[in-house]
Write a structure and sequence with these properties.
Blueprint lengths: L12 H4 L18 H14 L4 H4 L12 H5 L5 H15 L2 H26 L21 H8 L6 H13 L4 H14 L4 H11 L5 H12 L14 H8 L4 H6 L19 H6 L15 H17 L1
Helix pairs in contact: 5-6, 6-11, 8-9, 9-11, 10-11
Length: about 300
Amino acid sequence: MRAFPINVSSLTLDQLQLLNGNWYSKFRNYWRPGMDGALDQWELFIKGGLYDYKDKRDDLTKETISKMSPFIALGNISIRFLWASCQELIEVEADPAFAQQIESFLRQLIWREFSIYQLLSYPSFTTLSLRSNFQHFEWEPNSLYLHAWKKGQTGYPLVDAGMRELWETGYMHNRVRMVVASFLVKHLLQPWQEGYDWFEHTLLDFNAANNAMGWQWVSGTGIDSAPYFRIFNPSLQGEKFDIDGIYIKKWVPELANLPSKYIHAPQTAPTAILEQANITLGDTYPLPIVDHKTARARALERYNAIKKA
């Protein structure tokens, strides 16, 4: 068989600039791609996290999440394999308590499939709010707010830690994904589509259906979404799931010397404590870009208005 006879004009990979800077090279420090990497991660999860998944999957200081989503998204391992492996473990262990932990993980796989059915039923799912009244929601697009959120410079440590983890590793803990998403759409009143686009750009485990379902769930615009009045308080979420600030200090190193008492709200720390920790708010670490109570009240006002529309 002969090759196509016409010479096609194109560019080299270097000219296309698909791999600029260190955006891709650092990922190799955190991931081993391919089937072998997927199987290794699965074995690691079985030994270290699956047995406590239901009880501890929201604990940001524990390795109780599977981290299988990048491998699933890239086709390195299948949902069917994970499902069959879990069923085998349930049969081998024959322990009802362990079965509950595994079933909690299996529900996550089911949610993933549910998102695909939503996209099949609503092809515009990734760009338009399913609840039509929200297509008239009064967002307040703000490039400065959006940039601060993307770069992890909001002044809310848990939000900033999550966004920096994402930029560094191409991944973010699911509990933190909900917090940063809620912060973007409800505290900052930025359109959820902006968050969708950024996650598409940065996530190794990006899946159009799953990503859209997550953003529409948080923003209250999709099927079986979170109630509009559910607005995560980033500081309280940190106190609950990262009590001593271990996760925050890992990804926001400029706060590493701050006592755990103040790690979730550095602006509440006395000046002397901040000086001892080498922190200058507004310089070495930003002040909160919005006040939580004020932002929450504003979001509720907007949501109440659209609810009546």
